[in-house]
Amino acid sequence: MVAATSEEMVALSTTQVIIHPLVLLSVTDHAARVAKGGRKRVVGVLLGQDLGTSLNVANSFAVPFDEEESKADPSSSSSTTNPSSKNPTTWFLDHNFVESMGDMFKKVSAKEKLIGWYHTGPKLRSTDLEINEVFKRYCPRPVMVIVDVRPDRGIAKGSVTDAYFAIEEIKDDGTATQNTFMHVPSSIEAEESEEIGVEHLLRDIKDLSTGTLSTRVTDRLNSLRGLQARLSEISDYLQGVIKNDLPVNHQIIYNLQDIFNLLPNIDLSPTTTSQSAPVEKSLDGDVSMSSLTDIAAGAKDLTSLVLDRSRPLTTVTNDQLLVMYLSSLIRAVIALHGLVNNKLENQSAAAAIEQQNEDPTGTDQDILSRTKPSSDEKAKDSNSNKENSSSSRGL
Length: 395
Hints:
This protein has 12 helices and 11 strands. The chain has helices at residues 6-13, 21-34, 95-108, 128-135, 192-203, 212-242, 250-261, 289-300, 302-308, 310-358, 362-371, 375-394; strands at residues 2-4, 16-19, 43-50, 54-63, 65-67, 91-93, 113-119, 143-147, 161-169, 178-184, 186-188. It is extended, with a radius of gyration of 36 Å.
């Protein structure tokens, strides 16, 4: 457990967790073999390199794990409980298997070390801190990655991976510390060899019946839905802070202020601006309530800001859209030209083959005509033979 002050939390929050596709394939296969369509989560070990500011997760292996789950769906938002449900705090993890497999992986690749663990959640559980303490025996700061392997999840729900570090949060008001998980950014990256393998795996399951235009429209729609979900989550958090239902997290407030400062001024009228006011601080460094109210109002009206001012945004970017349209049109014409040339070449080759099949003896006659001597060559040879015979008689 890392005792994190405000500065240490800021440094830890910038740690990037890089996950390779091989890990995702291994976790998906593990869940398909063990869970077998159920909601039971699986647990495994992550291998890679801890580079300080980033963690490179390159490999993984499954670990025998079992726990007692309640009959209610843990991912459900319902608050009803069943008194006959099992105790969800009872779990089993074979750490001897972790040690033996870790020793074997060291013999294969010495660079890949144990840097954390994963489970298929899809959300945090109450026993995750206890399981994380087990993995602290093998590395000083294990990273926990939740991989969402549900087939019914949508693209609008965001990334399939969420990375966390266990910290001991020291509060500014002097109250007791609290053990919790801190979310850190994660990304899926691949080397060239891995990209080739993933392309081969996805080639057979790619839906060729879906057009390019419909795919792009669907992607844009899912992106907008994801943006709307994030904005609603930000608005709900800020409203909870204003009502004193949630504690103030200064890092979140500063990040939101930076986001609002980066909003483009898409309103063409000179009397308005999209830049928000700076965050006001009191003498003790806390964020004032008026600033929280302003930020909450900005988060609530951000969706209407994007929708109502779409016309000025289109006016500013129409040149770029025209260039993109012309580029797509030129690529289409070039591709069509190549297709026509290929069609003509195929027709010519097919005609030549068909002509050869219709006259199969033509080639043999040509060969015989080239190999047989002509009449002029025969006459020339006979004259030379006569001269040779006459000269021999004279002698």
